[in-house]
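so my prof wants the structure for this chain in the tokens format not the other one, which i didnt know existed until like an hour ago. anyway here's the sequence
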Amino acid sequence: MKIIIADTSAVVRAIFEQNLQKYSGLQIIASVPNSRQLALSIQQNEPDVIICGFDLTESIIFEDFKKFAMSNQLPILFLAGSDEELIKSKSLNVSESMLKPKLNSYDPSFFDSVSERLSKIISQAPRKCASGSDTSSSDASFKILCIGASTGGPSAVSQVLKGLGKNFPLPVLYAQHVEVGADENLAMWLSGECHNIHVTIAKDGEEAKPAHVYMAPADRHLVIDYAKSNGTPVLHLSDEEPERFLRPAVNKLFRSAAQFYKQSCLAVLLTGMGMDGADGCKVICDKGGWTIVEDKSTCTVFGMPAAAIEAGGAKEILPRGDISNRILELVKK
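here's what i got, hopefully its the right format
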């Protein structure tokens, strides 16, 4: 059983690590001090269960953990420092709660009880995906696919597009961080690599068609101007200020798609440096859409996907080679 220990106190985390390692079958794979690092550690380490002892009397800690717990799908054993925390924890998405001792009162019987409760909640837990996200999408029919990438993006996007096959039923909008003058060459290269799908630089006012990829030009934001009555997106190239020094920005594209398509929006965030796309992924999720972010194991740079995971914007986390098949599963439902 692989366990992550999450507690504000480094001393408490050390006590748990030292004592639980004595139990056969229990493996402590990570120790983290807050909810944000917990979310990232889940993706990196794929635990079976979480032991959490955050101080919920602190309002900021409580709100952070509440946000995490509502989207988490892994079993959680919550260790409350007081009766007040015990009551608070039961209002959250935790499997079981128990009081934890004072620092000088930990004894073998307490850890025996922890071990027993871990076995209990693991046996009762349904199977989950490794990322901690529910992999069953909504019943919505997807009408658009958006892709964002930065460092290492061209080869990643090429692999994903090739895997979509011919006659892909959705228009694909693609934002890539690219230098001025390199966008046309990149679009031509992708078009030559991906014979199954048509790749062009997006034009202002253009209607986006299925089985076509519309790439944002260098130094212009690609957004959706409006959606026609039949669901067809009409594109707009914007000269708005760069977002975090980036134009085109993945966030701009993703937020635009979420605004018009809500639960019918499907987005993929691939390898890249920085945080672009994280906020956009979160907005898509909040609107009921679906997001897939690339797993660390196949990223050239894990920055953008990691930021989306930490922001709560990743519905699924998949290695690059699995993303195309998952997209096809989702759009053919």
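also thought this was worth mentioning. The longest helix spans residues 108-124.
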